């Protein structure tokens, strides 16, 4: 052990009580010996229990049908969310404005992130009403088991199937060891050919089948060649999920005006796009320390910070990239129409 490792050991140990998930970057989380004794699965089990306990306290945020959908499948799906007038107004605000946009390329797909801080929403009443509305906010908070401010973007996926490497998001994976929520409100129809979001129903639960698979993965995850797997977003095939006893995958090739809120601790993937496509949505994500014994007390609820997480996150990525003399993973694309082709 190097001297620096001895100094870092208390930090690595303290991270066990947080959402830290990387088997590569934390030698305790990645320890073969400790994982053979069940460390990873024990963290998963405790995270699930604590999340269930908090989620029960947030039951009033959603209705009976939403609770039943989450419990059985790991996601909440709603169609015809807005009235025709509201939807038309929202589409108009998105189509007729330009936005400060950040592009992230992963293989043959570019994901465009548009932060929506209060100053961006102040002249867009439909967008503001949706982003701050009960349905979007409450279903994210319920699934995440956390009454906190989610990170929200206008979100565009631009795919060019014949250009570049395979998009790593098209492999089935779990985002992390703990329950966590992501939401997409689709403004327009999503066709099967456009590579819709797909999910393995029920895989948000630590069933005996999943626990055995996780135990096996955890032992040598620190030595794996796949960096994303080694950092705690375990990759798998649909057949492996089936072998754990889960149902067939579902694809969300949904009509426009649909909302999907999924626990992306469950197994999911972006479908493979068979043609160039542009998918426009409003995206939210919420994940906090899974072991918190309370649902609220969120620093982002303070005035001045509320609604600004996405903007601050982009600035933070730019700052760290500049310090390393590199380009940020999310490159500023200018104030553009959100469906404009990416230059990166
Ligand atoms: Fe994911």
Question: Summed up, what is this model?
Answer:
The chain has helices at residues 3-15, 32-36, 39-57, 64-73, 84-95, 118-121, 125-131, 134-144, 208-220, 227-230, 238-243, 309-323; strands at 75-78, 99-106, 109-115, 151-159, 172-173, 181-186, 197-199, 235-236, 250-251, 258-263, 268-270, 277-286, 331-336.
What report would you give on this structure?
Strands 1-10-6-12-4-3-2-13 form an 8-stranded antiparallel sheet, with helices on both faces. The protein has a 3-stranded antiparallel sheet with strand order 9-7-11, with no helix packed on it. It is built from 12 helices and 13 strands. The mean pLDDT is 91. The chain has a single domain (3-287, 299-336), classed as Jelly Rolls. It has helices at 3-15, 32-36, 39-57, 64-73, 84-95, 118-121, 125-131, 134-144, 208-220, 227-230, 238-243, 309-323, and strands at 75-78, 99-106, 109-115, 151-159, 172-173, 181-186, 197-199, 235-236, 250-251, 258-263, 268-270, 277-286, 331-336. By secondary structure, it is α+β, with helices and mostly antiparallel strands. Helix content is 35%, strand content 20%. Helix 5 (84-95) crosses helix 7 (125-131). The site of fe (ii) ion has 4 residues, from loops.
């Amino acid at each position: 052990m190097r001297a620096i490792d001895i100094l870092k050991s208390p930090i690595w140990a303290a991270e066990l009580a947080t959402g830290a998930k990387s088997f590569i970057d934390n030698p305790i989380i990645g320890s073969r010996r400790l994982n053979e004794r069940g460390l990873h699965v024990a963290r998963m089990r405790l995270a699930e229990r604590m999340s269930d306990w908090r989620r029960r306290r947030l039951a009033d945020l959603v209705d009976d049908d939403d609770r039943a959908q989450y419990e059985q499948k790991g996601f909440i799906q709603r169609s015809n969310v807005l009235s025709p007038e509201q939807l038309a107004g929202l589409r108009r605000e998105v189509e007729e404005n330009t936005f400060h946009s950040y592009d992230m390329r992963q293989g043959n797909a570019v994901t465009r992130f548009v932060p929506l801080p209060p100053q961006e929403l102040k002249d867009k009443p439909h967008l503001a009403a949706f982003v701050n509305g009960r349905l979007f906010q409450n279903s994210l908070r319920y699934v995440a088991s956390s009454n906190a401010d989610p990170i929200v973007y206008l979100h565009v996926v631009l795919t060019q199937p014949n250009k570049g490497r395979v998009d790593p998001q098209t492999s089935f994976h779990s985002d992390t060891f703990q329950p966590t929520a992501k939401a997409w409100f689709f403004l327009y129809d999503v066709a099967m050919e456009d590579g819709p979001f797909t999910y393995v129903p029920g895989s948000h639960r630590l069933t005996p089948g999943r626990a055995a698979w996780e135990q096996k993965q955890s032992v040598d995850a620190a030595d794996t060649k796949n960096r994303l797997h080694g950092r705690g977003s375990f990759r798998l095939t649909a057949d492996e999920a089936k072998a754990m006893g889960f149902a067939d995958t579902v694809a969300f090739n949904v009509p426009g005006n649909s909302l999907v809120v999924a626990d992306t601790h469950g197994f999911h993937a972006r479908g493979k796009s068979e043609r160039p496509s542009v998918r426009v949505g409003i995206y939210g994500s919420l994940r906090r320390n899974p072991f918190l014994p309370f649902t609220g007390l969120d620093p982002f609820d303070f005035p001045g910070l509320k609604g600004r997480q996405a903007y601050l996150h982009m600035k933070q990525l730019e700052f760290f990239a500049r310090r390393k003399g590199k380009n940020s993973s999310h490159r500023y694309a200018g104030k553009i129409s959100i469906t404009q082709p990416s230059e990166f």
